[in-house]
Amino acid sequence: MRVMLRARLRDERGATIVIVGLMLVAILGMVALVTDVGGLVAMKRRVVTASDSAALAAAQSYARNQGGRCGSAGGNARALASASSFAQDNVSTATSVAFTPNCHNKSVEVQYKAPVHFFFAQVLGQGSGDDVQAASTAIWGPVGRARPAPVMVFQSQLEACGIPDNPPPEGMTVPCDLTYNSNRDLGPPFWGSLDLSNWNSTTAPCHLDAHELVREINNGGWDTELDLNAGGVPTPDCADNGRSTSIFHALEGQTLTFPVVADTPISDGGGSDGAVMNVIGFVKVTVDSVENPSTITMHIEWAGPESLVGVPVVGGPDFGERAVRLVG
Which residues, in sequence order, are CB contacts of 83 under 8 Å at separation 6+? Predict the structure, then answer.
């Protein structure tokens, strides 16, 4: 009997060891599932963030013409370097898999990967981990929203100064003289302020209070951001052909965003006192000084393309004030 009892105890102990061993394997499997798979999901999110920031950085680089224009060796190299720097700020082990700029459509697609190192899964013989990847696309183009100062700049004035087709080297500026005729009857560019409260309205004529316009200028522009219409639809606004030099002198020494208008008005506003202009873009310049003989001349400097996260107008006229946006 004693021999049989001892044998039975040994069998039960062996079965217990087997059960405990199986339970440990199951527990390790659950720990691996929670820890390693959780780590995989977390790394995937980090790589997505890294890829998004890389796409935006590349688009910013192209929008600012850093290193050269999109498609040039210098421009592409600078954009890729900027993208990888931002990606690795988020995930230090991130490496570029693909970098595809589309200069015609003003978009750039990037793809990054980073390794994931498993711990518990290796104990179970499941390998050390795989790379996780993510792709993102960003676009850039003329900004479609701004807080402009209430003085219009004509498209032909900027084109005559090579803005934005001839961007200056970094740290330099492009000087430009914006001379306005004394009234609309003399043809564009004529002197006039915009009634920003009438934005996107064809109501005219308008007569603006000089004190209110100076307030807007000293406030850095209109109180809220104003949107351009998309898809080639005109963005009308009423221009006052009155003459108040205090408005222009308030601009001196300031760096402001100005609405850019087409040379040809949408309508004459029903008389010679004003016109309804088509706002087609924005430009940011510094006003150095203003001359006030029979015509008004603003001496400005353009520091080159600017960019910010925002809403680009795809296919719209470009005056150097640009926006970048993540689209995928």
Answer: 54, 55, 57, 58, 61, 96, 99, 108, 110
